[in-house]
C-alpha cells in the first residue's frame, strides 16, 4: 500500500506537486501557464517504492503509490516527457485524464454502464490529449533514428507486451468469467502487464491470486456503425483533419461490479466514439484509451507507450528473459557503489548485467552461465548494445564494463572474497531445469556465492519462484548469509520472491585444490 510521501521540497523547484490528490487530473493550464501532466506508470509488482525513488531522483516529483499494486502516479511538466520515457523502472506509461478515488457504481448493470457512458462527456480531455500529441511528436523523432535496428523481435511481440518471459509451455490464457458475448475481440489477459497476477484460476488450476478477484481482460471495442456519425457536432475544437482511430482497454479488478470489463470497454468506447467521432480499430489505433477499475477506484487515461519499455535493451530473447524493469529493481536493492564488482552467475540472456552496465557504468559487471546458448544470446545482446552506443557519438561513447563467461555455477573461477554483489534470477524449475535439481543446486549455489562475496559487506539479490527450496537452502547456509529483505513479485503470472541477503563476517570454506 502507498503512503503519499510528504517529501521535502528540493531547492529550485516550482510549487509542490499536488499529484492529483483531489482526484482530478492536473490543474488546467491558465493563460500561458505551462502544460502539466499526471503520469501513471505500471511497474513490476513489489517494486513500486523503487520506482517512486527513481522518479524523485530523476524528475524531482513525488509519487503516489496506487492501492492497485503495480502502479504509481506523479505530476510533471509536459516538457519532461523525454526524461519520463528514460525511467528504468517503469513498464508502461499513460497520462491521467481523471481519477476517481471513490466512484459509486450503481447496483444495476444497465445503470452502472450508462453512468460510465455519461462520464465521457464530462471528462477533462483537452490537456491530456495535448500531452498525447506532444508524446507522439517525440515518438516520431525517435522512430526516424531507429530504422536501422531491424532484427528486433519486438514487432512480432508488440501486442503481447512482455509475453516473452512466459515460456511457450504455459501461456496462461485464463478462462475469464466474461469472454466475448459481444462484437469484441478479447486477447488473453495481461496484454498490458504480464507482471500483474492473473488471479482467476484457469482450467489447469494455476494458483489463486491473493485477493482472487482479478479480472483483467484486454478488450477492443468494435463500436457498431448504428451510432451514426454526426460529423458536424463534435470536432471538439481540435480541428483535426485526420480521422483518428482508437481502442479502449479496460482492466477491472474487484468483486463488487455488476458488469464485466468487456461490457465496460464496449459501452465506454461507444461513448468515446460518439464524443470525438473517432473510428474504432483494435489493431491499428492511434489512441489507446485506458479504463482502469480497481474496486471503487476508477482511472481514465491515454496510453503513452505502445509496447512495454521493458524490452529496451534486449534483442535476442531466450525462454526466460527477465524484464529489464525487474532487473533494474533488483539491482537497485543491492545499492551498487562505484567500483563494485557485480556478478550474475546464472545470467541467461544477460538482462541483469546489461541493465546494470547501462545504469551503473562505474561498476564492473561479470556475467556467466553454464549454457552455451545462453552465453551466445547474452553476447549478442551485448553486441547490440555496443553498436547502439557507437552510433551515438563515437568520441564520447564509453565502453561497457561488462564481461560474459561460460562457467559452472558451483565452481566459479573467481577468487574467494573478491566480489561485492551477486544478482541473479535463480532457475525457476517451471521454465528451465526442474524442482528436483533445485534441491541440490540451491545450497551449492548459495555456498559458492558466499565464497566469492566479501565477508561483512557483500550482498546478494536473488529472484526465485521455488520459495520452499530456497528457504531450506538458506537455512543450511545461515552462517554466511542472512536475509535482510523480501519483495514479493509476479513474473509472467507466477508468484516469485526477490531476496536481499547480506554476507556475514564468517569466513567461507576455501575450495581445496585437487592437485
UniProtKB/TrEMBL annotation:
<keyword id="KW-0694">RNA-binding</keyword>
<dbReference type="InterPro" id="IPR029063">
    <property type="entry name" value="SAM-dependent_MTases_sf"/>
</dbReference>
<comment type="similarity">
    <text>Belongs to the methyltransferase superfamily.</text>
</comment>
<feature type="compositionally biased region" description="Basic and acidic residues">
    <location>
        <begin position="155"/>
        <end position="168"/>
    </location>
</feature>
<dbReference type="Pfam" id="PF01170">
    <property type="entry name" value="UPF0020"/>
</dbReference>
<feature type="region of interest" description="Disordered">
    <location>
        <begin position="1"/>
        <end position="33"/>
    </location>
</feature>
<keyword id="KW-0819">tRNA processing</keyword>
<feature type="compositionally biased region" description="Low complexity">
    <location>
        <begin position="11"/>
        <end position="20"/>
    </location>
</feature>
<dbReference type="GO" id="GO:0005737">
    <property type="term" value="C:cytoplasm"/>
</dbReference>
<feature type="compositionally biased region" description="Polar residues">
    <location>
        <begin position="222"/>
        <end position="237"/>
    </location>
</feature>
<dbReference type="GO" id="GO:0030488">
    <property type="term" value="P:tRNA methylation"/>
</dbReference>
<dbReference type="InterPro" id="IPR000241">
    <property type="entry name" value="RlmKL-like_Mtase"/>
</dbReference>
<feature type="region of interest" description="Disordered">
    <location>
        <begin position="140"/>
        <end position="240"/>
    </location>
</feature>
<dbReference type="InterPro" id="IPR053943">
    <property type="entry name" value="RlmKL-like_Mtase_CS"/>
</dbReference>
<dbReference type="InterPro" id="IPR004114">
    <property type="entry name" value="THUMP_dom"/>
</dbReference>
<keyword id="KW-0963">Cytoplasm</keyword>
<feature type="domain" description="THUMP">
    <location>
        <begin position="194"/>
        <end position="304"/>
    </location>
</feature>
<keyword id="KW-0489">Methyltransferase</keyword>
<dbReference type="GO" id="GO:0016423">
    <property type="term" value="F:tRNA (guanine) methyltransferase activity"/>
</dbReference>
<dbReference type="GO" id="GO:0043527">
    <property type="term" value="C:tRNA methyltransferase complex"/>
</dbReference>
<feature type="compositionally biased region" description="Basic residues">
    <location>
        <begin position="140"/>
        <end position="149"/>
    </location>
</feature>
<protein>
    <submittedName>
        <fullName>THUM3 protein</fullName>
    </submittedName>
</protein>
<dbReference type="GO" id="GO:0003723">
    <property type="term" value="F:RNA binding"/>
</dbReference>
<dbReference type="Pfam" id="PF02926">
    <property type="entry name" value="THUMP"/>
</dbReference>
<keyword id="KW-0808">Transferase</keyword>
Amino acid at each position: 500500500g502507498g503512503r503519499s510521501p510528504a517529501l521535502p521540497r528540493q531547492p529550485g523547484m516550482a510549487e509542490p506537486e499536488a499529484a492529483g490528490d483531489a482526484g482530478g487530473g492536473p490543474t488546467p493550464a491558465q493563460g500561458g501557464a505551462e502544460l502539466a501532466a499526471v503520469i501513471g506508470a505500471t511497474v513490476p509488482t513489489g517494486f513500486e517504492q523503487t520506482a517512486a525513488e527513481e522518479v524523485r531522483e530523476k524528475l524531482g516529483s513525488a509519487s503516489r503509490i496506487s492501492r492497485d499494486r503495480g502502479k504509481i502516479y506523479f505530476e510533471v511538466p509536459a516538457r519532461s516527457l523525454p526524461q519520463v520515457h528514460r525511467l528504468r523502472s517503469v513498464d508502461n506509461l499513460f497520462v491521467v485524464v481523471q481519477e476517481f478515488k471513490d466512484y459509486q457504481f450503481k447496483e444495476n448493470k444497465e445503470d452502472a454502464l450508462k453512468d460510465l457512458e455519461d462520464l465521457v462527456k464530462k471528462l477533462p480531455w483537452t490537456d491530456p490529449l495535448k500531452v498525447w500529441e506532444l508524446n507522439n511528436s517525440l515518438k516520431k523523432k525517435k522512430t526516424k533514428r531507429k530504422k536501422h535496428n531491424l532484427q528486433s523481435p519486438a514487432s512480432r511481440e508488440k501486442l503481447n507486451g512482455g509475453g516473452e518471459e512466459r515460456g511457450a509451455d504455459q501461456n496462461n490464457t485464463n478462462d475469464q468469467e466474461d469472454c466475448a458475448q459481444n462484437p469484441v475481440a478479447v486477447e488473453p489477459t495481461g496484454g498490458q502487464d504480464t507482471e500483474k497476477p492473473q488471479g482467476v484460476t484457469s482450467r489447469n488450476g494455476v494458483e489463486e491470486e491473493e485477493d482472487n478477484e482479478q479480472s483483467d481482460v484486454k478488450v477492443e471495442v468494435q463500436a457498431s456503425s448504428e451510432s451514426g456519425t454526426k460529423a458536424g457536432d463534435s470536432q471538439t475544437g481540435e480541428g483535426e483533419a485526420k480521422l483518428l482511430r482508437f481502442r479502449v482497454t479496460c482492466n477491472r479488478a474487484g468483486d463488487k461490479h455488476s458488469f464485466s470489463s468487456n461490457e465496460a470497454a464496449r459501452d465506454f468506447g461507444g461513448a468515446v466514439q460518439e464524443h470525438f467521432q473517432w473510428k474504432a480499430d483494435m489493431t491499428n489505433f492511434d489512441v489507446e484509451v485506458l479504463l482502469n477499475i480497481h474496486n471503487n477506484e476508477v482511472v481514465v487515461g491515454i496510453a503513452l507507450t505502445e509496447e512495454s519499455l521493458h524490452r529496451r535493451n534486449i534483442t535476442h530473447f531466450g525462454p526466460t528473459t527477465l524484464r529489464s524493469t525487474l532487473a533494474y529493481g533488483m539491482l537497485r536493492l543491492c545499492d551498487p557503489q562505484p567500483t563494485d564488482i557485480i556478478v550474475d552467475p546464472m545470467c541467461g540472456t544477460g538482462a541483469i548485467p546489461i541493465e546494470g552496465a547501462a545504469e551503473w557504468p562505474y561498476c564492473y559487471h561479470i556475467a556467466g552461465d553454464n549454457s552455451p546458448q545462453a552465453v551466445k544470446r547474452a553476447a549478442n545482446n551485448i553486441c547490440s548494445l555496443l553498436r547502439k552506443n557507437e552510433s551515438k557519438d563515437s568520441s564520447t561513447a564509453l565502453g561497457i564494463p561488462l564481461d560474459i563467461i561460460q562457467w559452472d555455477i558451483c565452481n566459479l573461477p573467481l577468487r574467494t572474497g573478491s566480489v561485492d554483489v551477486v544478482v541473479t534470477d535463480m532457475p525457476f524449475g517451471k521454465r528451465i531445469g526442474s524442482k528436483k535439481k533445485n534441491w541440490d543446486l540451491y545450497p551449492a549455489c548459495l555456498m559458492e556465492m558466499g565464497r566469492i562475496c566479501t565477508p561483512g559487506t557483500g550482498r546478494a539479490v536473488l529472484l526465485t519462484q521455488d520459495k520452499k527450496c530456497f528457504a531450506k537452502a538458506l537455512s543450511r547456509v545461515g552462517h554466511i548469509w542472512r536475509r535482510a529483505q523480501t519483495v514479493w513479485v509476479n513474473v509472467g503470472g507466477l508468484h516469485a520472491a526477490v531476496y536481499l541477503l547480506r554476507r556475514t563476517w564468517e569466513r567461507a570454506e576455501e575450495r581445496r585444490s585437487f592437485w
